[in-house]
From TrEMBL:
Stated name of the protein: Ubiquitin carboxyl-terminal hydrolase CYLD
Pfam families: UCH
Location(s) in or outside the cell: Cytoplasm, Cytoskeleton, Spindle
Signal peptide: none
GO cellular component: microtubule; spindle
Statement: the UniProt record of this protein carries the keyword Cytoplasm: yes
Keywords attached to this entry: Cytoplasm, Hydrolase, Microtubule
GO MF terms held by the record: cysteine-type deubiquitinase activity
Gene Ontology biological-process annotations: protein deubiquitination
Residue ranges annotated for the Peptidase C19 ubiquitin carboxyl-terminal hydrolase domain, each copy included: 24-204
């Protein structure tokens, strides 16, 4: 018998199920990068639910069932996932990814996403980026890189994405179906920002390549862009 599936949590239900002690994904043995990524991708949105159900060409059904039945469904149903379930997934990633440190070492979230989305589930890249007119780059997530900005004390995600794209001379080739963004990360000794305000909506108009935009002076379609 197939286990029940649960929709993502929304509004008051999300607050009721996810707030309080013993909620979220239990950390164990340097799992924080994976716990945070899984919570962000599945707790309150269904954008990537195809990862849980769709039989992709290269899809490993065992990993898919662990992700769906032991992590995402319990998170959405009770608001809590025990560390043993995440370790079960990490053991499978170690086996499939030919990397022995997935069960005990801290990894970059991008490494985890590339492994599970590309090598194990066979999902097409979610983002197409172009830098300075060069060849297109395909990727699954975008990590914000930027120099210290004195005027940004408590920034929001919109500001960080715009600053990062501008400093790297990047453009989105097309509107992504899912835009996974990794916030700036630093070690225990130094953090660029003590807090980042989540932007509940993200305006990517100025980040799109060759997208028609209006002139800020006359209101007609712009022909030049000044960074």
């Amino acid at each position: 018998q197939a286990p029940d599936s649960f929709p993502p949590l929304r509004h008051e239900a999300a607050v009721h199920v996810l707030r309080g002690r013993m909620k979220g994904i239990q950390g164990h043995c340097n799992s924080c990068y994976m716990d945070a990524a899984l919570f962000s991708l599945f707790s309150c949105t269904s954008v990537l639910d195809s990862m849980l159900f769709k039989p992709f060409p290269l899809c490993d059904r065992n990993v898919q069932s662990i992700l769906r039945d032991e992590i995402v469904n319990p998170l959405r149903k009770t608001g809590f996932v025990r560390a043993r379930s995440v370790m079960h997934l990490r053991e499978q990633l170690t086996e499939k990814g030919q990397c022995s440190s997935f069960t005990n070492a801290e990894k970059d979230p991008e490494e985890f996403l590339n492994l599970i989305m590309h090598q194990i589930l066979g999902i097409e890249p979610l983002l197409k980026l172009q830098s300075g007119g060069q060849k297109e780059q395909d990727c699954y997530c975008y990590q914000i890189f930027m120099d210290k900005q004195e005027d940004l004390v408590v920034p929001d995600v919109q500001q960080l994405v715009e600053h990062s794209f501008l400093s790297s001379d990047l453009k989105l080739v097309e509107i992504p179906s899912c835009f996974i963004i990794q916030m700036p990360r630093f070690g225990k000794e130094y953090k660029m920002f003590s807090k980042i305000i989540p932007s509940l909506e993200l305006d990517i108009t100025d980040l799109l390549l060759d997208s028609p935009r209006e002139c800020c002076v006359c209101g007609d379609v712009a022909t030049l862009e000044c960074s």
